[in-house]
Amino acid sequence: MAKKDSNHAPRLKYMILSVVIAIIIWILVSFSTGVDITNTFHNVPVRYTGMRELSSRELVLLRSAPAADLAVTLTGKRTDIMDALDNVQIEVDVSEITEAGDYELEGTVRLPSSKLTIERTNFTTVPVTVSAMTEKEIPLEVRYDTFNKKYVNAVPDQEKVVIMGAESELAGIDKAFLFVTAPKGEPTDGEVLMPVRYEDSAGRELRLPDSVRCRTPQVKVKCTVYDAVMLPVDIDTTIIERDGYKVDRDKTVIEPKEIEVGVLPGSKIEHVLARVEKADSNTPMDCEIMNTAGLFVPDKSKTVRVTLSAYDSSNEMD
User: Fold this and answer.
1) Are both 192 and 127 inside the same structural domain?
2) Within a domain: residue 30?
3) Which structural domain range is residue 152 located in?
């Protein structure tokens, strides 16, 4: 019986120690969360109101970062201060602005809790720059991802996009394009909406500033999917034959003799034709591949080199 009591003694000590530690932790947490602290928030974000009125006057706000650090010092319980870390804002009303220019407007600090007290700020006004709204028209390009044994011909329902904003911000936006890809492994056949993407003159992709808008940020595109196949190349001599020339096909050289093109599933296309427009015998010419129903010619296969062997049939003797 005495042996059994001796086994319970260490266990009782551990239980008492655990209770003491729990009480100490509770006291520390209660102390740290119940005491007021003061904290300064730097680079506080600015939220603008009255944007609808500004836009109705064909004005646009340039939302560049303020030159100076906008700081707000708050006092409150530690938990309230921690909750406010990403929720303190400075509100600026731009609805009264009627023309382009530089302004200093009053900034109002907005807090997430009434339990917080504003001790001080390092600003009285916030600098604001407003510019006249202008438009810029940019041709719309279509670019393609690489597909496994497939080609896609994407035709957007518009050839240009119009972006609107301050002239200084529109100046660096030079290209607009759609990127045709296959997010699920196979390209989409049919109509899809694609987001417009932008580049500068150096080919660097851009994210539009908040103050720049596009009239059609998404464009409807009709996509047709073709099977990628290798087909032999022949020449179409209709034009030069109308001018009285004949072609010796055995001596005519076509390079390359086969090209990769897209063919609609079910189409029976056995070869492609390169259009010959001049009877320049023995002179290499770049000849364009002719489009026909069910055929898609990718950029890399648009032309072939033809060295023609032709003669004027009017000189033939009876």
Assistant:
1) no
2) no
3) 133-225
Question: DSSP 3-state assignment of 226?
Answer: strand
Q: Are strands 175-180 and 197-199 parallel, antiparallel or unpaired?
A: antiparallel
Instruction: Name the residue with tokens 């090209």.
Output: 259
What is the rounded CA–CA span in Å between residue 211 and residue 60?
Answer: 7
Question: What CATH number should be reported for the domain holding residue 236?
Answer: 2.170.120.40
pLDDT digits (tens, 9 = 90+) for 63-72: 765 667 899 9
Summarised one tens digit per residue, pLDDT across range 219-252 is 999 999 999 999 999 999 999 888 888 888 899 9
Residue 20 included in any domain: no
Does the pTM of the predicted model rise above 0.70? no
Structure token pair of residue 17: 């120690």
Looking at the 3D structure of the chain, how many domains does it have?
3
Q: Where are the alpha helices (DSSP H) in the chain?
A: 2-34, 51-56, 78-83, 167-170, 238-242
In sign, the C-alpha dihedral spanning 176, 181, 184, 186 is: positive
